[in-house]
Fold this protein.
Amino acid sequence: MIKNALLTLVLVVSFFVAQAQSQNFKYQGVARNNNGTILSGSNLGIRISIRSGSATGNIDYQETHNVTTNQFGTFSIEIGAGTVNRGTFNNIDWAGAQKYIQTELNTGGSFVDMGVAKLLSVPYATYAFNAPGSRGATGATGPQGPQGAVGPQGIPGINGVAGPIGPQGIAGATGARGVTGATGSNGLTGATGATGSQGNQGIAGAVGATGAQGIAGATGPVGATGANGLTGATGATGAQGIQGIAGVTGAVGATGATGATGAQGIQGIAGVTGAVGATGANGLTGVTGATGAQG
């Protein structure tokens, strides 16, 4: 039990006549603590008093109920069917004076006053069950009376507590993987391009002319054999002919004619006269030969 809690109560009252011999009516409420938190699954004591004339008028009838709130803090009772503390429910004079309903709540200690509400005209329909005397014959329908003033608008009912959110649905299984498409065939290999024709061979360059041979000198008389003279220098090599321009490479051309042999080069300068040889035996001195012409 919840003890010593300051409670607020939101009330929804619906009145009805359940059967021809019953004047009971439903009473429904939501219990909250002073922080506005719903008191779910709580055992409560409810005391209902029907007061006459004003919110503090005499108590015509009083009863108690023991209830357990649901998960939303809601409870429901039937007024007229509780444990009677005072009066008789069926003897309430609904037509005698304006009626008020007082609600008290007990969470484990004493009853706490939760307020008084004015009862509207609906419950007074039950007055017909308590009317004295037997019911006479139905009289003729009287003329329609003037339309009554519009009554005050009733207190709007509270919004119902939102239901819990349902669990999330199970994720669907992953679909099977599609079949892999066949590999396409290889494309055709392109044709090889034609080989280009070979260019003509260039003309061979002309061989350079051979230099003119020098004039041979006259042979002088044989003198005494002297020392070997120095070897004369080698004549210069004739200039090489100019190389022809290289032709475009193409088909192999015909072999060109062999060029004419150049003239022989000029003979080199004669070497210097060797040293005088040693004096021979007492022979006659030979005549000195004439010097040969220069090559």
Observations:
- The longest strand covers residues 43-52.
- Residues 1-6, 10-21 have pLDDT under 50 and may be disordered.
